[in-house]
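testing teh design pipeline on a random one, pls ignore if ur not involved
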């Protein structure tokens, strides 16, 4: 091709790209949260990856189109979050039930449950609600998911793509592993190997981290994760340290009153209490166990209250619920 013709072709190409950019910019300016095109709804990460793929293949127009979709999806995600929180914060709180008047804690958590229920319904009606694109978190999340679901084909493909990226190995980690879990597993292995002292040490080290994680969860979340096997931190270990073993056994029985082995251990400790110098105070549960038991008992009462008073969402009502909120917002 002659130099003049090559220059003309380059100018024409640049003009075409400029036209596409102007069209895309106009589309972004006409963005509407209430009438977002359903055919453009997709995960934000997928839209951006499509844009990069088209760019690598020198499909400029398609690349610009997907980049514009990514921008609109990002804005839609942000507006969806704000919409739900704004409407759920403005929702009128019903008068508490008469039976809850003497339970201020249940009334407080009941309000949190109602807000969580409102946010859940609202977000279910907004299909654009997706986690923002964050590569390190995406890699770690995919790896964590595959540890629990190793046969998931879509996630395996995603992980293969992530591993092809430079530096991806630095972000591969299990997000679900907690420090107390590692210590507890190590303690159990020591216990199985009859290394009693090491087992006790690791279990005692696990307890502060466990309580820290639990109470941080209470402080930061609208609901806490159910932990069924907490009693396992209070095993009675055979190291002839009866002054510590007895309160551990009593603490264990707080969470499982029908455990026959621990009941027999406690009877054994009571029988030899004089010979071993055990006092009444040694047969009291550990304070941190009592506190945890009281908190989880209250949570159980709240859970039963929620089961009775908060019904599962009907799928057919979700869209109508969001439409009602939109109409209310427009008239206000």
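output:
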């Amino acid at each position: 091709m002659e130099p003049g013709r090559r220059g003309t072709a380059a100018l024409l190409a640049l003009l075409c790209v400029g036209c596409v950019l102007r069209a895309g910019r106009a589309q972004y300016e006409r963005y509407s949260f209430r009438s977002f095109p359903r055919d453009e709804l997709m995960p934000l990460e997928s839209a951006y990856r499509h844009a990069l793929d088209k760019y690598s293949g020198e499909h400029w127009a398609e690349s610009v189109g997907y980049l514009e979709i990514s921008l609109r999806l990002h804005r839609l995600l942000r507006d969806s979050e704000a919409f739900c929180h704004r409407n759920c914060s403005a929702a009128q709180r019903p008068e508490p039930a008469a039976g809850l008047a003497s339970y201020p804690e249940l009334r407080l958590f009941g309000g949190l449950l109602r807000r969580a229920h409102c946010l859940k319904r609202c977000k279910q009606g907004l299909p654009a609600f997706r986690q923002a694109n964050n590569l390190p978190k995406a890699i770690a999340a995919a790896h964590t998911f595959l540890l629990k679901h190793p046969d998931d084909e879509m996630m395996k493909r995603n992980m293969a793509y992530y591993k092809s990226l430079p530096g991806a190995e630095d972000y591969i980690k299990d997000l679900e592993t907690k420090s107390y879990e590692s210590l507890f597993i190590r303690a159990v292995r020591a216990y199985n190997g009859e290394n009693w002292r090491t087992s006790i040490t690791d279990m005692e080290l696990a307890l502060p981290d466990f309580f820290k994680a639990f109470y941080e969860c209470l402080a930061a979340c609208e609901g806490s994760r159910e932990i069924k096997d907490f009693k396992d931190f209070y095993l009675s270990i055979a190291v002839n340290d009866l002054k510590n073993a007895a309160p551990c056994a009593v603490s264990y029985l707080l969470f499982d009153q029908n455990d026959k082995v621990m009941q027999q251990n406690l009877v054994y400790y009571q029988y030899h209490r004089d010979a071993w110098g055990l006092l009444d105070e040694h047969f009291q549960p550990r304070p941190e166990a009592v506190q945890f038991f009281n908190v989880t008992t209250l949570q159980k009462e709240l859970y039963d209250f929620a089961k009775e008073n908060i019904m599962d969402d009907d799928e057919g009502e979700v869209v109508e619920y969001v439409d009602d909120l939109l109409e209310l917002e427009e008239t206000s």
